[in-house]
C-alpha cells in the first residue's frame, strides 16, 4: 500500500514539474515573440510593406473601377436604346475614363515620390 502512495505522489510531482516547465517555456516564447514584433514594427521594411499593401489595394480598386466603367449597359437589354440615351451612356463612360485616368496619374506620381524618398533616404 505504501508503494502505491509513493507512486501516486511521484506521479503528481512529475506532472507538476512538467507543467511548470511547460508554462515557463510558453512565457519565454511569448516574450521572444513580443521582442521580435517590436523589432519588426520599427523596421523600415515593415513600413514599406505596409505602403505597398495600401498601394496594391488602391490599384486593385482602380482596376475594378476601370472594368465597371467599360461595362455600362442600358437597363433592359431587349429594348432599343434611343440615340440620346446612347449618347448619354457614351459621355458617362468617357467621363468615368477621364476620372480613372486622373486617379491613376495621381497614384503613380505619389508612388514615384515615395519611391524617390526611400532611395534617397
Topology of helices and strands:
Layout (H helix, E strand, L loop, with lengths): L1 H41 L1 H27 L12 H38 L1
Helix pairs in contact: 2-3
What attributes does this structure have?
about 120 residues, mainly alpha, 3 helices, about 90% helix
Give a quick rundown of the structure.
The protein is mainly α and 121 residues long.
Give the overall pLDDT as a whole number. 84
Overall body shape: elongated
Described by strand count, sense and barrel closure, the largest sheet is: none
Q: Strand-and-helix sequence, N→C?
A: HHH
Distance between the termini: 77 Å
Number of helices: 3
- Binned, the helix content reads over 70%
Low-confidence segments, given as residue ranges, are none
Protein model, in words:
It is a single chain. This protein is 88% helix and 0% strand. The model has no long low-confidence stretch (mean pLDDT 84). With 121 residues, it is mostly helical.
Amino acid at each position: 500500500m505504501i508503494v502505491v502512495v509513493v507512486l501516486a505522489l511521484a506521479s503528481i510531482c512529475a506532472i507538476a514539474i512538467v507543467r511548470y516547465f511547460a508554462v515557463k517555456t510558453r512565457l519565454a516564447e511569448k516574450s521572444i515573440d513580443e521582442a521580435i514584433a517590436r523589432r519588426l514594427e520599427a523596421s523600415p521594411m515593415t513600413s514599406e510593406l505596409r505602403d505597398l499593401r495600401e498601394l496594391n489595394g488602391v490599384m486593385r480598386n482602380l482596376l475594378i473601377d476601370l472594368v465597371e466603367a467599360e461595362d455600362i449597359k442600358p437597363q433592359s437589354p431587349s429594348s432599343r436604346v434611343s440615340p440620346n440615351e446612347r449618347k448619354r451612356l457614351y459621355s458617362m463612360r468617357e467621363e468615368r475614363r477621364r476620372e480613372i485616368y486622373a486617379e491613376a496619374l495621381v497614384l503613380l506620381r505619389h508612388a514615384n515620390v515615395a519611391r524617390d524618398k526611400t532611395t534617397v533616404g
